[in-house]
Amino acid sequence: MLVAAGLLGLTQPMWAGDIAEPGGYRMDDYRAPVPRTLQGARVVTTAEAEALWREKKAVFFDVMPNTPKPTNLPAGTIWREATRKDIPGSIWLANVGYGAISEETASYFRQGLAAEAGADNSRAILFYCMTNCWMSWNAAKRAIEWGYSSVIWYPLGADGWERANLPLEEKKPYVISN
């Protein structure tokens, strides 16, 4: 039974080893084994993330990067937007999970958090990306440093959610409205 639950992503992820939390942000090699912990955050399994989602007890933020269409493509070049499938109701704050982010990206991140989670920094907010993706770890760490006190990290991400046969929906990156 435990093996079946592990295959469905209902238990804690299978770790490639004991990865220590870095002192700061992960700055490269973002698709690599992640630590079991994030100081100041609650780390959840798929079953725990599903319960939070069903009970609407947290605002879900996907931080998967997005590559926008280059502005200087030669005429006639075909560009296909990547399709992103998210946990339903999530907000996709693209590109905020890098170790170093510009002031513009930090502003986008802060505005997205405030617009979707409200002014209450104690409201539960959950960050995810993909399994073994440091982007969500970095974003959750940054939210903690910005004073959010109920940060949740779901390290199995959208692919862990999908492995558990839970619903996904296509998303576009969040756009700040003026």
Automatic annotation (TrEMBL):
<protein>
    <submittedName>
        <fullName>PQQ-dependent catabolism-associated CXXCW motif protein</fullName>
    </submittedName>
</protein>
<dbReference type="InterPro" id="IPR022376">
    <property type="entry name" value="PQQ_CXXCW"/>
</dbReference>
<feature type="domain" description="Rhodanese">
    <location>
        <begin position="87"/>
        <end position="170"/>
    </location>
</feature>
<dbReference type="InterPro" id="IPR036873">
    <property type="entry name" value="Rhodanese-like_dom_sf"/>
</dbReference>
<dbReference type="InterPro" id="IPR001763">
    <property type="entry name" value="Rhodanese-like_dom"/>
</dbReference>
